[in-house]
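Weekly modeling sync, notes
Attendees: S.R. (lead), two postdocs, one rotation student

Agenda item 3: backlog of single-chain predictions. S.R. asked that every request posted to the team notebook include the full sequence so nobody has to chase files. The rotation student volunteered to paste the first one in as an example of the format we agreed on. Action items at the bottom.

Example entry:
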Amino acid sequence: MVPVFYHEYFPPPDVGVDCSVEPSRTKQSFRDECDINVIMERLVPGDEGGPPPVYGDFSSVTDFQQSMEIIAEAQQQFEVLPSRVRERFANDPARMLAFLDDASNLKEAVELGLCSARPEPVAKEAPPKAEPEIPK
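Predicted structure, as returned to the notebook:
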């Protein structure tokens, strides 16, 4: 085989990919979501576009490391639950916590074994009134 030398007047053959032959698989419905000009137009000058700032007393909030440890422990406790219980909440601990926050779900939570039933309040009987003693 004889070596071939390419130069300015004798360029190599074009080996690029021609994508115009096949139909495009790009979904044009996402065009505006990806266009940086459209995204920038949505923002009002001076507006960051995020949720409004939250003000409050956060002195009881733990640091990041402790928060992550709490989340990891909650995830481990959720994973220990039976699969049918986890499936009920689509394997999402946040859905289970939202479910448990609603008092109307107490009966189902007891059936799933997530909590124990509340004891029925016992009505206290009033102590018998003592009859006053009559001095003799």
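Discussion: group reviewed the output briefly. Helices lie at 31-34, 36-42, 64-80, 83-88, 93-101, 106-112.
Action items: rotation student to repeat for the remaining queue; S.R. to check formatting next week.
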